[in-house]
Design brief:
Order of helices and strands of chain B: EHEEHEEHHHEHEHEEHEEEEEEEEEEEE
Shape of chain A: globular
Largest interface: A-B, 31 and 31 residues
Structural class of chain B: alpha+beta
Shape of chain B: globular
Distance between the termini of chain B: 63 Å
Number of helices of chain A: 10
CATH class of the largest domain in chain B: Alpha Beta
CATH topology of the largest domain in chain B: Rossmann fold
Mean pLDDT of chain B: 84
Oligomer: heterodimer
Number of strands of chain B: 21
């Protein structure tokens, strides 16, 4: 485990430059470049806001802003997009880089770290865009924003644990790469991003505790919309789940590492 | 010492688990054994001492690439050990991992980063990389606008920008134009002079002979020979013929003059006698003058009735470079239906337009234009003779070109 960490440390320049390279290539060939990273989730928010605000009663309790629902959506989307980007990219990170892995010896763990780095940068850009939109909508976030870094750390921990676990399995069982996106769809709709928790019938709400994303996403909503601090106990549980996933994933990764290249 | 490599009993097998779940279970429990093991490399042991250049040769599928992958640590050995000291650089597949949308410079940064160097380190050598690659302003253009040769230039420049302790080269030099090939060869030679250990895999036996101190012959996943270049390369040639001819023997003997005689073949026809004589006097020679009219006289004893017989021969210099070679297939002088017991005398006259030095004659008795279909006998370095320059002006090289100097003197014209 220590060797893995020191390998990643030796390759810190590579990791940083890869993140930079990835961002740069996004801007080179397409006109709007990296903006697409922001436009995509925002378009989603726009669609949901348009369609669902008519269906759902768009009034949120305690919030006077008429755009409250849109703000609610954006808050959840910010948390979700960081999670989903890391998971889906980790899922294929070894397969996508098979060419390099087969030809060059370097710490494989650097690859998921590059994913984290570039996902984080994208997410920060999205955050900036969202804050700008908040300004336009007349919603001024408070000092509760200071909780955001903690939410991001929890989100990244959970995402990297899940992503690395499935990413390693995917090298050997390619079906995993097909199944996980479907599971992510389910997870998206089982998490109150588009809807509010209270629309779930009372008798089923007990099940929600099984979804570790809920404290995280509601944390985002608390911070960005309600100007409240997140539910620290729920978040602590999510973090713990993330740590457990990460440890399992790292053990699996270490065991699989010698055979991984032969399967690419 | 840095640049040392020790390989002990190295082996690599690809395992069939009969299902991926079984494989995954095996990571956590040693009791779960693979259903089938397919060894691509086994019992390979050798040492590369600091500053030594080693060539690795062998046919496709002999395990050369697997061995290199193990040495570069891109793949893990199934058994055995590998000790290495110092920094390893590998030129395996050049230009691999280049991002087509980024410029040559950005890709150079990225590739060097993959080798584990810091931004500052790379910054220091970047101008050298640019100068060595010699692709002008293309260096700051996206790589997708490059020709494959240009990509290769950048890739080679990056791979060799830092002096390694052990350099691994896998036939990468065959790409690119001849100018850059020479240039990259020079750089490798420089590394060699600076004491960098080199492992060189190639199908070009000539390159292997010139660049390597020792050659390793791989065959079917194991190490077949490890020794001086001429010995192993000639053995390999004989082995290639053996694959095609079931009943073959290979015999090698180091002569007192340092040349290595390798005799192989199925033996239906054999060279009974080979000598070099002066055309005028018919007396046998050991030393030949530059420009002398000489003749090789070769007697072939036929042991079995054969459909046809082709004689080929080549003259090689001390480094093993072929100076000249041909056979009676190309000259349309095939001997049809030689009978058992027949003795055939070949006379091969030529003017000795060779430079001073030691040369060898290697005759081959075959049935067509290569030695691969029927190899009756192939003898490397059967006859050795020396060429001396007695009556010409001093010159060097393996050819007596008869080139002259024409000198004209005059005043510089003022315009």
């Amino acid at each position: 485990m220590l060797g893995m960490l020191s390998g990643a440390w030796r390759y810190r320049y590579f990791i940083v430059s890869s993140v930079r390279t990835e961002l740069r290539t996004k801007f080179i060939r397409s006109r709007l470049g990296g903006l697409w990273m922001i436009l995509n989730p925002l378009a989603q928010v726009l669609i949901f806001a348009f369609i669902l605000s008519a269906v759902l009663s768009a009034k949120l309790p305690g919030i006077n802003n008429r755009y409250a629902y849109a703000i609610y959506l954006m808050a959840g989307t910010l948390g979700w997009s960081l999670f989903t980007e890391i998971v889906t990219r980790c899922l294929t990170v070894f397969i996508d880089n098979g060419n390099i892995l087969k030809k060059l010896a370097f710490p494989k763990i650097a690859l998921p770290l590059v994913v984290i780095g570039s996902a984080l940068v994208n997410n920060l850009l999205l955050l900036a865009a969202i804050l700008a939109i908040f300004g336009v909508l007349g919603h001024m976030p408070s000092t509760a924003l200071l909780w955001l870094p903690m939410l991001m750390i929890v989100g990244i921990t959970l995402a990297i644990g899940v992503g690395l676990f499935f990413g390693v399995l995917n090298v050997f069982l390619r079906d995993v790469g097909q199944v996980v996106p479907v599971l992510m769809q389910f997870l998206f709709w089982f998490t109150p991003i588009v809807y509010m928790v209270k629309i779930i019938p009372e008798q089923y709400r007990g099940w929600l505790i099984l979804n570790p994303l809920i404290p995280l996403i509601t944390g985002y909503q608390n911070v960005l919309l309600y100007d409240r601090m997140p539910d620290l106990i729920g978040l602590g549980v999510t973090f713990l789940v993330g740590i457990i996933f990460s440890v399992i994933a790292l053990v699996l990764f270490r065991k699989a590492s010698p055979e991984m290249v032969d399967q690419l | 010492m840095s640049g040392e490599l020790q390989v002990r009993n190295l082996g690599k097998s690809y395992r069939q688990w009969g299902g991926e779940l079984r494989r995954m279970a095996s990571w956590f429990s040693p009791q779960i054994l693979p259903m089938e093991e397919h060894w691509v490399l086994r019992n390979v042991s050798f040492v590369v001492r600091p500053g030594e250049s080693i060539g690795i040769i062998g046919q496709n599928g002999a395990g050369k690439s697997t061995l290199l992958k193990l040495i570069t640590k891109t793949t893990q050995p199934t058994e055995g050990e590998l000790f290495m000291s110092g920094r390893v650089a590998a030129i395996l597949e050049l230009g691999m991992g280049f991002n087509p949308d980024m410029t040559g410079r950005q890709n150079a940064f990225h590739s060097a980063g993959l080798m584990g160097y810091s931004h500052a380190d790379i910054q220091n050598v970047m101008s050298e990389i640019e100068i060595f690659a010699e692709i002008g302003e293309y260096f700051d253009q996206p790589v997708r606008t490059y020709s494959s040769g240009m990509q290769m230039r950048v890739a080679f420049s990056v791979a060799t920008a830092f002096r390694p302790d052990l350099l691994i080269i896998d036939e990468a030099l065959s790409v690119g134009d001849s100018y850059f090939q020479h240039k990259s060869f020079d750089r490798i030679r420089q590394f060699r002079e600076q004491g960098v250990s080199i492992i060189f895999v190639s199908h070009s036996l000539g390159d292997v002979r010139t660049l390597c101190d020792r050659v390793i012959l791989m065959d079917k996943g194991s190490l077949l020979r490890d020794g001086p270049p001429d010995e192993v390369v000639d053995y390999y040639n004989a082995l290639v013929a053996e694959k095609e001819n079931a009943k073959m023997t290979v015999e090698q003997r180091r002569e007192k003059n340092g040349w290595l005689m390798t005799r192989s073949g199925s033996g239906e026809a054999r060279v009974a006698d080979l000598r070099i004589v002066d055309v005028a006097t018919e007396s046998e020679l050991a030393v030949v003058r530059v420009g002398q009219q000489v003749e090789l006289q070769l007697k072939v004893a036929v042991r079995d009735d054969l459909p046809r017989l082709v004689l080929g021969y080549m003259i090689r210099d001390k480094q093993g470079h072929v100076i000249w070679g041909s056979n009676t297939w190309h000259t349309s002088q095939v001997v049809e239906h030689p009978r058992a017991g027949e003795v055939i005398q070949f006379r091969l006259p030529f003017t000795c337009n060779l430079g001073p030095g030691s040369y060898s004659v290697s005759p081959a008795l075959v049935s067509s234009d290569t030695h691969l279909s029927d190899n009756y006998e192939w003898v490397d370095n059967l006859l050795v003779f020396d060429v001396v320059n007695v009556d010409r002006n001093f010159f060097i090289g393996s050819n007596s070109l008869d080139a002259r100097f024409v000198i004209e003197r005059g005043q510089e014209q003022a315009n």
